[in-house]
Structures
1.
Amino acid sequence: MEQENLFNRRTLLKGAGATLGIAAFAKALAPITEWTKDISVDEFLQKHYRELDKSELAAVIKRIEAETKEDYGKEVTISAPQAQKGVKFAYALNLSICVGCRRCAEACHIENNHDRASGNSYIRVLEMSKGSMDMEHGNADYNHPIPQDDKFYMPVQCQQCDNPPCVDVCPVEATWKEPDGIVVVDYNWCIGCRYCEAACPYHARRFNWEKPQIPAAEINPNQSYLSNRIRPQGVMEKCTFCLHRKREGKMPACLEACPTGARVFGNILDPNSEIRKVLENKRVFVLKEELGTKPSFYYFFDE
C-alpha cells in the first residue's frame, strides 16, 4: 500500500492529541459522534492494519483480547495468520444437491461470532424457481419443508471478487484484497460509511447497527484479527471464507456443516486440488458475470 494514497483519518487527531495532552484530548473526542462513545483513544489512533509492525500488531491484539474479556467475560485468542505464497482460494457449489437446509448459514453464524439477537450470517440461501437465475426474485425467507420439487437452492455469500467494487469505493482503504484472494476488512479502521455495502452487487456486506450481543458460553474463542473476532458497533463486516481456519489448513465452517457435500473449496493454483477438478470438468458459472467483478465463487449443476 502506498502511504501517500492512504487517507489517514487520524492525522489531524494525532496532532491535536500532542497539542492538548492525552487527558484533554480524550475529553475533546467524547462528543464527536455516538459511535465513538466506547472507543478508547488508543483504538481511535490505531494505525491501519497494513501499517502495523509485528510489535505494534501484538500490542493491538493484546488490547482487543483484554477488551473482549472485559466486555463479554470470555478469554479469547486472536491470531493474525498471513497469506501463503502460491495460494489463491476459490469456492464452488453444486446446486444440484444443495437442499436449502441453511446449515451453512447457521455454521457461519456460530463460527464467526455474529450477534445472536439479529441471527446474522454472511450466507443467504435463496429459494429459486427451476429454470430461473433471477436472484432478485429468490426467496431468502422460506419457512416451509424443503426441498421443494419445483425449486432449487442457491447459497450466496461474498464472492471474493478479483475486481471487487466494494474495495474501490472505500474512502479510507479499510477493505482490500489479500494475496490469497480474500477480501478483508480492518474493523478498527472502518468508518461505517457503508459505501462498500451499496457497491456490492451480491448483498454480501453486513453493518453492525448495535454492539453484538453474544453469551460468553457461545463465543468462539479461536479468533483472527481480519475475520471472526467480535466486530465493533458501527462498522462493516463480511465473509472471509473463514480466513482464520483456511490459513491454518482447515476448511470453512460452512463447508464442514453441509450435509450433502455440495460445497467444494481449495487452492485454485494447485492443479491437483478438488476445486481445480471442478473447474476443469464441470460447466461452472459465476453470478452477474456481466458486471466484470470476476468472482472466485463458482456454481454448477450436475449434468
2.
Amino acid sequence: MRHPRAGVGIVLALVSALGLAGCAETEFLVNTAKQAKGADRAGSVGAYKVGSPYQISGVWYYPKEEWDYVETGIASWYGPGFHGRSTANGELFDENDVTAAHRTLPLPSIVRVTNLGNGRSLVVRVNDRGPFAHGRIIDMSRRSAQLLGFERQGTAKVKVEILPEDSRREQAVARGGAPGPVLASASPTEPAAPAPQAVPSPPVQVSRLDAPSGAAAAPAPRPAAATASRSPGAGGTAAVVAGGPPPGTVETVPVSPTDIWVQVGSFENRDNAQRLSVRMRSFGPAGVQRAEVAGRTFHRVRIGPLTEVASADRVLERVIAAGYPGARIVVD
C-alpha cells in the first residue's frame, strides 16, 4: 500500500517541476528579448555618478565635474563582450546605442567626439567608466565607432569636448529632477588644454549613415529646438540636447593632418621642462613645446612625433614604468 504522503510528494514534485519549467521558459524569453533588443530598458535607469579616485595599472584617475574639458588622444571601442551588462552608473550597455565610456567625466555626460582622421563628428552620451588601456582617452560603443568610421581600424585620433549645458540637463534627469535652467558653476583651478587649431568648431556638412547589417539604427535627426529636447539614450534614460544635433547625427568638419605624441609633463618653469626632456631622450626624440593656456605659458615635454598608435603605446608604457604615471598620448 502506498503511503498517503507519497502521493502528496509526487504532486509537489510535479508542481515544482512545472514551476521550474515555467521559470526556465520565462528566463529564456527574457534573454531572447534582450538579445533582440540589446536590453530591457524599462527597468534600467542610470543614476548620476561622479565617483571616488581609482587606480588602473599604477595610474590614478580622479573623477570630477569639468565643464571646460577638452582633450585630444586616441579612442577605442567596445561592444560584444559587454553587451547587456550594467554600466558604471547602473544602465544596461547596448553596443548599438550611441554611448561611450570615460575615466573621469561625471555619468552621464554629453560630449562631442571628432575623428581627426576623417572629420566625422558625433554627439555621444557617456554612461560608463573606461577605457582601461593607458593610451586611450575614450571608449566608444560599437555603433559610435561605426558612425565615426573607425570600427575596422579599432582606434582613431580624436578630439573629445564636453557639452556643458547638455550635460547639466542630462545629469538633472539622472538625479530624478527636470531639466530646468542651467546654473553657472565655478571654473576648475587647473587650466584646460587648448582646443587643437586643426579642428574648427563650425560644421560644414551634415550627413546620415545607415545602420550596418544586424545593428540597430541610430535615432533619426530632428530639427533643432530653442528649448531642451529629449532623444532616446541607453538604459531608458534620455539624452537632453539643448539645440544641436541629437546623438547619432554625424557632422563633417574640416581637419588637418595631426601627429601623435607622448606628453610626459607640463611646466611653467622652462628649466624644469628642459631637464625632464633630457631624461626622456632615451625613450625617443624628446623636446619642449611652448603653449599658451588661459593667459599662462606652459612648457610641455613631449616625445615624438610618432607615426603609429602602436609605437606610441610602446613608448607610453616604458615611460610609465620608468616612474612617470602622468604621461599620456596626445594628438596635435
3.
Amino acid sequence: MTNKKILVASVAMLIAGTAQAQSAGSNIISLGWFRVMPTSSADPLVLDSINGFPLGQTQTGTGAKIKSADTLGIAFTHFFTDNISGEIVGGIPPQHDVEGTGTYSKYGTLGNVRQWSPAALVKYHFLEAKSKFRPYVGIGVNYTWFTGETITNQTFVKSQFGPNATMTASAKSSWNPVFNIGANYAVTDNWFIGLSVSYLPLSSTATLTTHNAGASGNQTIVSHTKIKIDPVVTFLNVGYRF
C-alpha cells in the first residue's frame, strides 16, 4: 500500500471511527466547566407594605441584573438506544452577583445569591453509534432554588431605606423547561470531549424585608421584584464511558 493510500485510510478511520462508543446500554459520566449567563434583568421594585399596611407602590426606574458565573459541572448519561439517551446534570451551585440598574446603577453590586439548578434531559443523537462526532438535541426539566440571598451593599440599604435600616432577601424556587443542543467527540472508545448549550426560560420573585429603627418607631418594609434570569448555559466537558 502506498503512503497516499495509508494516509487516506487513516483519515477515513478517524472520521468514521470503529468503536460502538455511544450505543444502547452505554453509560457516560462527564465532568467540566459550566458558564451560566443570565440574559434578562429585574422589574422595578414594588413596595408591598409598611408594618403590614398595604402599599403596592412601584419604584419607577429601579432595577437589577444577575451577573454571569462559572462553576464545576457533572453529568450522568445512559443510552437507552443507539440514538436516545437520558441525562442527569448537576454541579456546584454558582454564586451570582446582583448589580443595580436604572436609578440603582450608582450603587454597583447590591448583593449575591447562590443558584441550584439540577436538570433531567432526554437527548436524540444523530449519526451512527460508531461515529466519532455526534451532534444531538435535547429537552428536559429543571428545578431551580436559591440559597445565600444576601444584600451586601449597606450604602444602598441605608440610602434607600434609612440610616438604621437592615435588609434580608429570599427568592422563590420554580420548575422550568430546558432546551439543549450540543455534540460529543470520541477521542477513544472510552473517552470523549463535549460541548453543549442550554437555554432555561427561568424567572423568580425576590422578596426583600427591611427593618428600620427610626425616631417614629420601628418599621418593617416588605418589597418585591420579579427577576427574569433566562440563562444561556454552556458546558465544556470531558466524559468517560463505562
